[in-house]
Specification:
single chain; mainly alpha
Length: 106
């Protein structure tokens, strides 16, 4: 069942306004009203995008990011501990030691 694009747009606009209200009136950093408004907004966007594609063969220039696992956050924290500059310096030194030296002219 395809939703009429105009109806989907109206729902998306209402979801944007509700999300803005939830963010502007949040009671704490983990206010569940903000999370709920986010979910409603994401759903309204997907319905709008699908209705545009089905009826008009068009898309928006936006996309929804994939949900992030808590495991991904831990992986990111592990990467913060790595000093990539030191690793790069060590790799460059290793390459320099292995390179043959040019012959000296007399």
């Amino acid at each position: 069942m395809t939703v009429e694009p105009r109806a989907a747009l109206d729902r998306l606009i209402a979801a944007l306004e509700a999300h803005h209200h939830a963010v502007a009136t949040r009671r704490s950093d983990d206010d569940p009203a903000v999370d709920d408004a986010y979910d409603v907004l994401a759903d309204a966007y997907e319905v709008y995008e699908e209705s545009l594609a089905t009826v008009f063969g068009e898309v928006t220039p936006f996309y929804l990011a994939d949900e992030v696992d808590d495991d991904d956050d831990e992986d990111d924290e592990d990467l913060e501990d790595i000093d990539f500059d030191d690793d790069l310096d060590e790799a460059e030194e290793s390459v320099e030691e292995d390179e043959p030296q040019p012959a000296q002219q007399r």
